[in-house]
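Q: Fold this one first, please.
A: Sequence and structure below.
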Amino acid sequence: MRLSDRALNVSPSATLAISRKASQLKAQGVDVVGFGAGEPDFDTPKHIKDAAAQALAAGDTKYAPKTLAKVQGAVAEDVTRRIGVEYKPSQVLVSCGAKHSLYNAFQAITNPGDEVIILSPYWVTYPEQVCMAGGKPVFVETRGEDDFAPDIAKVRAALTPSTRAIVINSPSNPCGNVYAREVLDALADIAVENDLIVISDEIYDQLLYDGLTHESALTARPEMKDRTIYVNGASKTYAMTGWRIGWTLAPKDVTDAMASIQDHATSNPASFAVAGAYTALTGPQECVEEMRRAFEERRTYMYDRLAAMSCCRISRPRGAFYAMPDFAPVMGRDFGGQVLSDSMDLAGYLLDKAAVALVPGTPFGAPTYARLSFATSMETITKGLDRIEEALC
């Protein structure tokens, strides 16, 4: 059967082989420590689950226009309250997870040949979705020694007449960096001066540490509201990854375009999941702070341990639940006949020799780095870091 060029050009997961091998080892009884989790290890708070159960019991199992209208209003109120930018419910599109929201966004704004600037390290889905929309991802590298802050001169140098948009992700997956106000201001200047759309992925905005408060790309300049597609969702803040609820806020014409695309793809998210998201947004918020505090404690321990190791260098993560150390100090070294040339080699070696599964940085555009999630227990973190130190340092 002949496949489409679009399907053939989507890159397979570069970490699939490592994930598969980790699963095989676990099935064989090996005590594998996993640092790959991209989701909170906490259960969804009870009051949110109860709301969905009540919606099911009440027969809320049909298409969801009434429930969606409620959650659109709740999202608009939440963004207005927390970020200070006012939106109408009609500018909110609720989708099947923030990944789906991003897909809608790229499909709505990208024409064949359009270029989209993506700061590296990046979440692996951004460039794939740009390509699926017919666009071209253009990468601008950032460095751990600069806390992954972009060199604004390099961003400007990457602009061409084909540049259509720039992706901003703060707090960041994979490296946990948080952009300072001056960085967001500079990126906003570029967007305004060059008539660019900004896709601002702020899914980790309530997972901040060291007393930081969230700075949104939306508030960098008054004009940003008219050129920004804001992306967020329930997954990370409320431990609702499996519920698949995300949303975008954008100028009305962009929201309408994304809604038309979604209408012919998924229609709407599950009605009872939307009911849970409404309760998440409007109900008690103490659960968010409890999870955030636990993540911060783990972050501090993981950072302190990695910063003390000779085998890597690390920038202090200040948001999300990831650390991204640079293992350049051990690249090129021979470990019992295995020379580590990049993070794929590193991940394979640590899985074989130390039963530690981490995510190599190569798929994120950072070949000497690796991503470690601290969305797991302190016991697991301690055990895994002990093994990494013994195997590499």
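Q: Good. Now the second chain.
A: Here it is, same layout.
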Amino acid sequence: MDASDSTRLLRIFTPRRLIVGAVLLAAGAAAVWLALPETVETVSLRRRDLVRTLALVGRVRPPSRAGLGAERSGTVREVRVREGDRVRKGQALVVLGDREARAAVSQAEAALTEASASARSAIEVAQNELEQAERNLERVRALRSQGVRSEQDVEEAEQRLADARSRLTAARAPEGEGDDPAAVVRARATLEAARARLAQTRVTAPGNGVVLTRSVEPGDAVQPGRVLLEVALDGPTELVVFPAEENLGQIRVGAPATASADAFPDSTFAATVSLVAPAVDPDQGTVEVRLAVRDPPNYLRPSMTVSVNVEGGRRSGASVLPEEAVRGLGTSTPWVAMVEDGRLVRRDVGVGLRAERWVEIRSGLASEDGVVPPDGSPELGARVRARSREGRSD
């Protein structure tokens, strides 16, 4: 090689030409790399049990809450209970002044005793007169047979006997359906009325329960209609919650639930939906739901705040995907992106129960189909190569 050849080579391999060659080489490599399909991670259907729950907040509902008041005006003499006291049916809780009512009862009792004694005496007298008239008639008839007495004497004796029977019948005459004489019945009615007026001076418990509120003290003047005490009557324990109306589809009568009182969060107890109200509250957009508690814990109190998880659905061995892998949830056409013939395509699916960030897939997928979650996913139609995601825990 002579000097002129060396000069020509140096001209060919100038820095500019070297740079251009390098760029062309890099562009070719990039084109090759871009032509390769993108690797995407996929998930497949799994089998698992799903339980959907609806978390709600409510209160312990007293079976019956009675507001108690006096039936008559008066001054309170005693208040025998306080808030939280247990009471039994018929127990006197508030006592009004009752001196006049007691006196009326005593007077009526004496009148009944007198009427009963008079009635017994009248019956005894009438009975004696009847027996005397019967003996007299027998004697007159015997004398008539001997020709000593006339027929007219017999008729008069018979009339006296008939009169005696009438007086005995009148003395024994009952009033109404009872067997007591009329005077005794009237006296007893007077006594019952007096006792009823005396009972009106007592405010009594209509059943077993717990005193919730007390708004009366000894010495207070009270009138009918004023609530003096509120009592929560014993009965089946119920919880009441008010879910939004859009949750109605998840609640059914008989659905099991788990509840806990906010005051005792570590203790839970079972409940069952017993009533779903037939109407929605138009102002609040909620519906009343009641739950029966078969074995209530001892610490439950009326109106206590409770947290309730109502079972809204259950599937055993459902085919599921992670919630984030299903697109369009909440719309009429949920779908997934899946790898088919080396490209990312859309596949509509039918969904069912959603719970614990899993979605039940009812149609549209086979167990071997790989679904690409949206996070970092390429556009539909892109060339992709699937790689199953492993190590994902249930």
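Q: Anything worth noting on the second one?
A: The two ends are 75 Å apart (CA to CA).
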